[in-house]
Specification:
By secondary structure, this protein is mostly helical. The protein has helices at 8-15, 17-25, 27-33, 39-62, 67-72, 80-89, 101-111, 115-142, 161-174, 179-206. Helix content is 67%, strand content 0%. Bound molecules: protoporphyrin IX containing FE.
């Protein structure tokens, strides 16, 4: 339901709540949060997010002529350099990262996605920086990286997080959208969450938990 009684920001939050819980509770995400992934698996995740970040921000830049995209999407939302620095910290050359199947499919879809779909994807990517900030703090300890070396893309906004997220949500609420476009924004957000879950499945298979490890529950 995308009724006019809820603003778009609240609609997105409500409609994707179950997907957020599924992502948050995924065993791969659980191992990430607990610092149990190890450098190689963490760098593999980082690399995939890097490719999607570049594709999404490039598609949003191209869609900038659409005033709705321009009103939301700011230069500080584009930070491939943080991913690149983080990847190098884990001894991965950014140019060497190859998309896994879930990422390859997402990259194809982003190339031809409409402005409302891109806005939905950007909502999830941006929203994830809220949790990323906490994850980054946890990893500083568990991966023994006290100054956040290799973790900068988890917390791209630093002290401006709250203010920028608030502005993004207000921007979502201020968008003028037809009901069809509004539904496309929600579908874009759902699609992006589905991508994240598919990616975690693929990474979970590529980097399985240690034998005998207890299933992770939250
Ligand atoms: C252990 C993993 C995670 C934790 C602990 C976590 C935690 C959080 C927290 C604390 C917030 C802020 C809620 C608020 O201020 O209202 C948040 C928001 C959000 N997170 Fe996560 N998160 C996690 C994983 C993810 C993942 C994997 C994604 C998707 C890539 C994601 C997407 C979002 C989105 C879209 C929001 C914005 C929700 C809204 O509309 O307010 N999160 N998360």
């Amino acid at each position: 339901m995308t009724t006019a009684t809820l603003g778009l920001a609240d609609t997105l939050k409500t409609q994707t709540q179950a997907a957020h819980t599924a992502a948050e509770r995924h065993e791969f995400q659980g191992r990430l949060f607990r610092g149990l992934l190890g450098d190689e698996a963490y760098a593999a995740l980082l690399g995939q997010y890097y490719l999607v970040h570049k594709a999404l921000t490039s598609a949003l830049s191209k869609a900038g002529a659409d005033g709705r995209v321009a009103s939301l999407f700011k230069p500080f939302h584009v930070y491939p350099q943080l991913f690149e620095a983080d990847l190098k910290e884990f001894s991965v050359l950014p140019g060497s990262v190859k998309p896994l199947p879930a990422t390859a499919q997402m990259l194809r879809e982003l190339e031809s996605a409409s402005a409302p779909t891109l806005i939905g994807c950007a909502y999830v990517a941006e929203g994830s920086t809220n949790g990323g900030k906490f994850i980054g703090q946890a990893l500083r300890r568990s991966l023994n990286r006290p100054n956040g070396e290799g973790l900068s893309s988890l917390d791209p906004h630093g002290d401006a997080q709250r203010e920028r997220w608030g502005a993004f949500r207000a921007g979502l609420d201020a968008l003028e959208l037809s009901e069809t476009d509004r539904q496309a924004v929600v579908a874009g957000a759902e699609r992006y969450f589905r991508y994240v879950l598919e990616l975690m499945q693929e990474l979970s298979r590529a980097f399985p938990p240690a034998p005998g490890a207890l299933p992770l529950t939250r």
